[in-house]
Design goal:
This protein is an alpha+beta fold. The chain has a single domain, classed as Sandwich (Immunoglobulin-like), CATH 2.60.40. The protein is built from 3 helices and 14 strands. The strands form 3 sheets. Strands 1, 2, 3, 7, 8, 10, 13 and 14 form an 8-stranded antiparallel sheet that branches. The chain has a 4-stranded antiparallel sheet with strand order 6-5-11-12, with no helix packed on it. The longest helix is centred in the N-terminal third of the chain and has 21 residues. The radius of gyration is 21 Å and the shape is elongated.
Length: 191
């Protein structure tokens, strides 16, 4: 009987050790509370999508996310936004981020690569997929849909800071809003 208890205790200890230190777990992403279509760059002509979410690891030891990217699909065409930056008070180019069990909540910014010259936001439904690269493997973290109303397209190209899609838990979807620049932001846009 003592041997059986000792063996069972050893098995439980080994399992606990594996769960705590050996199990890699997965990276999980919460539903973004906000998704924004905007433009960036010196001439404000570089399409950009940014969102706010929490990334967390299901393992005790955490995980390093090498990079993130986003795929945006509309009317049968798909564009990858592969340039990634993140942060809350100023953004930095993403070159990896450690995601622990407690998680990391920041804004994630995705920009089309410089080689893409002709991307435009068009009206209609957008399917958005967010991917992480972890240990050289691509992992889909989340997918969502937003609807970009036709009347907001012209506004987006005329100096508006962005089209914001806020998650509405009562309606169970994202609602589009316009973010107009204040006087200070407008002066920066015009210079």
């Amino acid at each position: 009987m003592e041997i059986a208890i000792a063996v069972l205790s050893l098995i439980v200890s080994l399992f606990t050790f594996w769960v705590t230190y050996g199990h890699r777990g997965k990276i999980k992403m919460t539903r973004p509370t906000i998704v924004v279509f905007a433009f960036e760059g010196m001439r404000k002509d570089e399409p950009k999508v940014f969102l706010r979410t929490l990334l967390r690891s299901t393992s005790k030891q955490g995980e390093v996310v090498e990079s993130l990217y986003l795929k945006l699909a509309n009317n049968g065409s798909t564009q990858t936004f592969s340039v990634w930056a993140y942060g809350d008070n100023g953004i930095v180019r993403g070159s990896g981020i450690y995601v622990g069990e407690q998680g990391v909540e920041v804004y994630h910014h995705f920009i089309v690569p410089k080689s893409v010259k002709d991307f435009k936001f068009l009206p209609g439904r957008y399917d958005i997929e967010i991917y992480a690269v972890i240990r050289d493997k691509k992992v889909k973290l989340y997918e969502l849909q937003v609807e970009l109303p036709a009347e907001m397209i012209n506004i987006l190209s005329n100096g508006v800071l962005g089209i914001y899609f806020d998650w509405d838990p009562e309606l169970n979807n994202y609602t589009a809003n316009i973010q107009s620049p204040n006087a200070e932001q407008m002066s920066r846009l015009l210079t």
